[in-house]
Automatic annotation (TrEMBL), chains A, B:
<dbReference type="InterPro" id="IPR046342">
    <property type="entry name" value="CBS_dom_sf"/>
</dbReference>
<dbReference type="GO" id="GO:0046872">
    <property type="term" value="F:metal ion binding"/>
</dbReference>
<keyword id="KW-0812">Transmembrane</keyword>
<dbReference type="GO" id="GO:0005886">
    <property type="term" value="C:plasma membrane"/>
</dbReference>
<keyword id="KW-1133">Transmembrane helix</keyword>
<dbReference type="InterPro" id="IPR038076">
    <property type="entry name" value="MgtE_N_sf"/>
</dbReference>
<keyword id="KW-1003">Cell membrane</keyword>
<dbReference type="InterPro" id="IPR006668">
    <property type="entry name" value="Mg_transptr_MgtE_intracell_dom"/>
</dbReference>
<feature type="transmembrane region" description="Helical">
    <location>
        <begin position="318"/>
        <end position="339"/>
    </location>
</feature>
<dbReference type="InterPro" id="IPR036739">
    <property type="entry name" value="SLC41_membr_dom_sf"/>
</dbReference>
<dbReference type="InterPro" id="IPR006667">
    <property type="entry name" value="SLC41_membr_dom"/>
</dbReference>
<feature type="transmembrane region" description="Helical">
    <location>
        <begin position="286"/>
        <end position="306"/>
    </location>
</feature>
<protein>
    <recommendedName>
        <fullName>Magnesium transporter MgtE</fullName>
    </recommendedName>
</protein>
<comment type="similarity">
    <text>Belongs to the SLC41A transporter family.</text>
</comment>
<comment type="subunit">
    <text>Homodimer.</text>
</comment>
<feature type="domain" description="CBS">
    <location>
        <begin position="204"/>
        <end position="262"/>
    </location>
</feature>
<comment type="function">
    <text>Acts as a magnesium transporter.</text>
</comment>
Amino acid sequence: MYKDMTENQILLLVIKNLKELRKKEFQLLIDELQPYDIANVYKNLPEKHRHKFLTYLTAQQIASLIQELESELQIEIIHKLGIERSSNIMNLMENDDLADLLGNLEVEQIQDFLSTMTADESRTVQSLMKYESDTAGGIMTNRFVWIPKIYTVRDAVDKLKTFAGFAENIYYLYVIDEDKKLVGVVSYRDLLLGDMNDKIEDIMYNRVISVPADLDQEEVARTIERYDFIAVPVTDEENRLLGIVTVDDILDVLIEEANEDIEKLSATGKSIDFQTSALVASYRRLPWLILLLFIGIMSGSIISAFEGTIERVVALTYFMPMIAGMTGNTGTQSLAVVVRGLVSQDIDKYTITRLIGRELGVGIIIGATCGLLIALVAFIWKGSLTLGLVVGSSLFLTLIIGTLAGTLIPLLLYRLKVDPAVASGPLITTINDIFSLLVYFGTASLFIHQLL
Amino acid sequence: MYKDMTENQILLLVIKNLKELRKKEFQLLIDELQPYDIANVYKNLPEKHRHKFLTYLTAQQIASLIQELESELQIEIIHKLGIERSSNIMNLMENDDLADLLGNLEVEQIQDFLSTMTADESRTVQSLMKYESDTAGGIMTNRFVWIPKIYTVRDAVDKLKTFAGFAENIYYLYVIDEDKKLVGVVSYRDLLLGDMNDKIEDIMYNRVISVPADLDQEEVARTIERYDFIAVPVTDEENRLLGIVTVDDILDVLIEEANEDIEKLSATGKSIDFQTSALVASYRRLPWLILLLFIGIMSGSIISAFEGTIERVVALTYFMPMIAGMTGNTGTQSLAVVVRGLVSQDIDKYTITRLIGRELGVGIIIGATCGLLIALVAFIWKGSLTLGLVVGSSLFLTLIIGTLAGTLIPLLLYRLKVDPAVASGPLITTINDIFSLLVYFGTASLFIHQLL
């Protein structure tokens, strides 16, 4: 009955139910909503209704609501609920989300919460909190189902039934041996097709793909993407099963990593979104800009070195911004190709040599085309064949240099184990400014007598 | 037993088995591999072994192998197998992958293949081929399980068993009414916890989230990501169920879309990777570069208009590339923030007004900081307070303009329903070059008498 209602209609109905104290109608409505939708209702709910809203929800519903919210609102809810009710709800949360939430609280508060949890739960959450948040350990959950390899299909189905309400992922069952080592995996599909008396050991898949707990989340994403998995198990050095990473968390990882690449490529600085204040955004953007400012001053000293040339042929300055700009542009293009390529490719010497050769080829083709065009324009505009030749051949050279700089700098950083995306577009552009000015005025100085 | 072998060891063992005609050992090994790994073996296999390799695989194995390969290798296999065996294999492929594969063949070949398929299969594949490849219809599969709402849990489990080997996703069952309209969804979890005699109608979830067939794949990805789904159903205008989109395809969509954003932001042109030839890469990169070249020439004519000013104060040229560069850099930063923000945010008037205000604030803060710094540098370097003031105040103004241009241009494009990422970094940089030259020389001309 609520199927075709818009978000706003739902919000209004929720407020109506809250005002008229109709808890039953309220629950009927909430029951039909997804956690994401409930979170949206909460976000748009006027402050004065939020407390009542929370008292009308079940603990399980609050747990899934919290998991959909940003940390600010999560903490608001924790405060509204008080420590006791919050603890009950934390017991119902996925452990990976819970570890993240606790990570945002103050140390004292964390202690308070951990002390109210069951010993088991508290130990688990603490162990999850010790992994870096961008590793397999940091994004794994331990709400999964494992079975000993001596189980039959019937045993497995029984265990699955008990855990279906609790586990985040019930599509794969991980099989362990006496030493708790991961030895196999069985999918729900296998159970469905197997005979009730089949031994798990006989129907399980042996070559389990797993990831170590300290693996970078980007690598975990790559594994799941390659194998089209819904989840991947996480193990310690001894191949003991620690948890699983599910595909829904991987979707978030992919979005986060792409955003990070773009932030670095544009030298934007960390996580600026539409909500960031002007002061914070400026503070994050300024370090790069100031660095680039000082590199930019170097271009000034190059020009001052060629002051004599410029004073004699002022027309040279006309093409200066264009040449510097074009060199920066090709550099940015090459940079983007290399940075994105490094994300999805395995890199060996052969690949790199071929890539550099290819970009050299691109530089020559692009340089020749644009050089010829600008030579023609300069010749027609200023009527000087020499000026055309100087501008054209400079652009030819600088475009080759720009392309190579955009290729070599990120590769070098990659080799030095620095994230190649640090070589942002603005940095490449600024460095290329300097190269291009040197080449341009150098060439012009060679032909200064013909230019006069 | 093959669990701890490296990729190379597996490859060598495969070749050994092929050479010694040990089909049984070959199958034992292949059985333990994932489709992705089998595809890797095939890619690295010397050409002379490939034909035998294919004859040793079962039709089902070839079907999953093909799905992991790029279209070039797919077509190679089709040719190696001949039309009859290929058709058998195509019948076993996921329909969305098959539609993509056929889309890469020539029309005649497509006709040949379609004619060898069962009428049902051929009709389905043809209907899949009619959707744009970047829409829900283009990435959906029709290997899913649907049940009528009058079924009991027992009926559903029986149907699931029959289809478990065939369906791409057996974790959700979609429920339809007499008119084939989508009315609910039941998860494997619900079946597991339900009683065998429960009616599906009573335990199903009514508020099914579905997407229309012509929805952009990026929007489909957003839906799956928001709701943490493993699959989402695709419906026509009448709410009839057409297919499902699974999360593994969404991972590919996210990677593809992030790459596209970066390509556009860096004006790289479509899909250049490490394998693209220099000629093709140049061809894809040149259109933007040539456009930027001509915009760059405009900056030349601006400078020529201020020739008199430059001739009198050559030192002005020292700061020209730095000012143009810095304006471009802030513009690129703002652009990246806006473009990425537009991907993940819902946009309304309020958000936009606030964003523009925020960026204006950022421009003022950044402009004041950098302007002050460069004024000091210019004053100390050239000993002229006026020059310091001209350079500093110009940078202050151009950084504000640059920030706003980097914000307003993508927003304007978004408003005009053009992809905002088209306003690439290089384009913003080039446009900002022009703004900055006008401001810089304009300011300088105002103070020309003090500068002399």
